[in-house]
Amino acid sequence: MQRREFVVGTLAAASAGAYLGNNLSAGESPPSTHTGVAKMPFEQPPLPYPMDALKPLFSEEQVSFHYGKHHAAYFKNLNGLVEGKPEAQMSLDDLVVKGSGAIFNNAAQAWNHTFFWNCLSPTGGREPNGELLAAIVRDFGGMAEFRKLFTDASVKVFGSGWGWLASDKQGKLEIIPAGNADNPLRHGKTPLLTVDVWEHAYYIDYRNERARFVENFWTKVNWDFVAQCYAKAKA
Ligand code: MN
To answer: How far is the CA of 1 from the centre of ligand 1 (A)?
Structure first.
């Protein structure tokens, strides 16, 4: 009974602040915190930059809610759902491909958001080059054409979802608009770039203006990350 209470307590503490880097505040015991965190099979990775580093695409408040509340909640929910189940031993990638129901929804949302943060950079927004640019020109006609197709497809996702750029094993590119938590991995494709078009992704900064958000999204795209994903897709 006491053990159970301890686990529940540390999970709650972790979801509230562990991922924001303030889990070892004064007076808290590091060993017990570490034990609690280690019990969770899935951990939200740190944000790859400070919360205010994506201005003016996103305000600090927008990122703090999106990363600290929404993204964190998918990990917390997932850890609760897999407790004592075989899924606790699976990788997050495997759960995205093979999972079902609520476990899939939370695993994919956990995965998708981590990928989304990596698709952005405070120094992003430059144009891609090399093989990736050549493939974009080959498959879409050029950067301007690709940007328009991806923007339109993402803006038009009905309800909540994601706009994806994905590659097959031959390196052919495809724009995949996806509902809810769907991910190209589920369809045998490798994700290269994504934009989150759930309202929670932009509502603090853009209110209902999804199109204006997706237009601004391009100013922070981390093309180096996209190119790395493309190189791995064809490997
Ligand atoms: Mn989101």
So the answer is: 36
